[in-house]
C-alpha cells in the first residue's frame, strides 16, 4: 500500500515538473520570437536609412 502511494506521488511530481518545464519553454519561445521580430524590424528600419 505504501509503495502504491509513493509511486503515485512520484508520478504526480514528475508530471508537475514536466508541465512546469513545458510552460517555461513556451514562455521562452514566445520571448525569443518577440526578440527576433524586434531585431528584424530594426534591421529593416536600418536598411531604409542607407
In words, what does this structure look like?
The protein is mainly alpha-helical. The chain contains 1 helix and no strands. The longest helix is centred in the middle third of the chain and has 48 residues, at 2-49. The chain starts with a helix and ends with a helix.
Question: How do the helices and strands follow one another from N- to C-terminus?
Answer: H
> Largest sheet, if any?
none
By DSSP, the count of extended strands is 0
Cα shape? rod-shaped
Helix content: over 70%
Structural class call reads mainly alpha
Mean pLDDT: 92
What is the gist of this entry?
By secondary structure, the chain is an all-alpha fold. It is built from 1 helix and no strands.
List keywords for this structure.
mainly alpha, 1 helix
Walk me through the topology:
Layout: H1 2-49
